[in-house]
Amino acid sequence: MRPRVEEVRIQGLGVIDEAVLELSPGFNVVTGETGAGKTMVVTGLGLLFGGRADPSRVRPGADRASVEGTLVIEPGGRVAQQVEDIGGEVEDGELIISRTVSAEGRSRAWLGGRTVPVGTLTYLADDLVAVHGQMDQQRLLQPARQRAALDRYAGNELVKPLRAYSQAYKRHKQVTAQLDELTTRARERAQEADQLRFGLEEVEKVDPKPGEDAELRGEEERLSHADALRSAATTAHTALLGDPMEAAGSPQDVASLLGEARSAVEAVRDFDTELAGVADRLAEAGYLISDVATDLAAYAESVEADPARLAAVQERRSVLTSLIRKYAQDSAGVLAWAQQSAARLAELEGDDERIGDLTREHEELTARVTELAARLTKVREAAAERFGQAVTEELTALAMPHARVIVQLSQSAEFGPEGRDEVEVRMAAHPAAPPLPLNKGASGGELSRVMLAIEVVFAGADPVPTFVFDEVDAGVGGKAAVEIGRRLARLARTAQVIVVTHLPQVAAFADQHLVVEKASDGSVVRSGVVTLNHEGRVRELSRMLAGLEDSELGRAHAEELLGLAAADR
């Protein structure tokens, strides 16, 4: 399903007080008397899709002008995904876009219910609409757009070589970047290698072991407080078992006091089971105290003040601390850094070999990319020739028989993602005129017709689903006007087309005909935009032909035009 504009609501814009346009998927035409506000429809659509906000367009007496559009889009499609990515909502395949312009010139935009920068609407419009008005002929004037459109026009003939080129170009770009890094940063990489070597030599010299810093810290604590530790163990041992140098039987130590308590309870344990349990626990306590005292004695015996070992531990800790401060959080981290740095150093030391390999690959890829780019150029040149001839033929039928359109290809200095071709569509207004860029070689009305010819030729190749034309028929009449209508109808077979026109020959080809009528005060109100039935179309075409809705001659001519358009479909 192709996206399309379903409804447009305009308020406070130019002569339009309030208007609602309900649009069909095919060819929509908007007509009305001079000054009725037809062009404001195109202006409103331009605002809706990010066009420049002109406060002078705000209706006198109104605070602001506003435009709201309802678009039918494919749920889950490219446009829906873009809207959801910025936080907007698409409900049941419908997208709401709004734009306001205050009388002071402030502009605000909403997309899917979310406030967005106006530039977001402009970005989204690239996939939705092409507006061709007297002051808004920008889309196909962009070189990148022209090249993309030419590539689509070239079709399948370009697909395979472009895919091959894109793959080669991507690898060429990667290899170029790697070579640039290796060669332009040679000094920095050499300095990095020197720093890594120094660090690795330092680590190798110290030779740290995992957890060694924690072990040395504990050993230093013990050696630094050896006398205090031994004294504490001895004092605790004496408190538990007593001092063997004192008189025997002194009940001041814990073991003696426990022994007295146990003896007292053992003497009467047979008289009460509860007290017997206490006696057992006192016996266990005695055994425990004896074991603890033994451990204290052994510990006191093992602790020795060793100034030489303490100095060695402190020196080793100092060396390790210096190393850790430079490279990691602990000795295990230093070893991990050394492992990673050794791998990085091996990579840096292999740069010369890598540069040689990459240089050879770069030369091969450059030749490959050059060959494929030349193939792309050849295909594009053939497509450009066909395209220029096709557009020139269209212009002949659009009352520009002397105009000639060519597509000029030039080569950029550098390779790009799409090759080296720069594409520019040019037009010569008459045989003696030099081909000029479209925005310089055609007047406003001519440019609209050129754009129409281009869009007709590109129909089916250009993915934009909605085209808007204003005054595409400027300065045209008679047979040429019929041809314009026929070509717009042809374009509407593959896209939605919205045209503001004053020519009945163009309006007759429309699938849906909207007429803009002023109210008695000169403004356009909601009821002033009417979708015409067949009888209404006959009256409006008669007015456009003869200036009188009920002219018999005008009505007959109108019926003839409608019949011609219907037969052409």
Automatic annotation (TrEMBL):
Residues 6-521 form the RecF/RecN/SMC N-terminal domain. Signal peptide: none annotated. InterPro entries: DNA_recomb/repair_RecN, P-loop_NTPase, RecF/RecN/SMC_N. The keyword Nucleus does not apply. Gene3D superfamilies: P-loop containing nucleotide triphosphate hydrolases (3.40.50.300). The keyword Thylakoid does not apply. Residues 348-382 form a coiled coil. Pfam families: SMC_N. Keywords: ATP-binding, Coiled coil, DNA damage, DNA repair, Nucleotide-binding. Belongs to the RecN family. NCBIfam families: recN. May be involved in recombinational repair of damaged DNA. PANTHER family: DNA REPAIR PROTEIN RECN. This is DNA repair protein RecN.
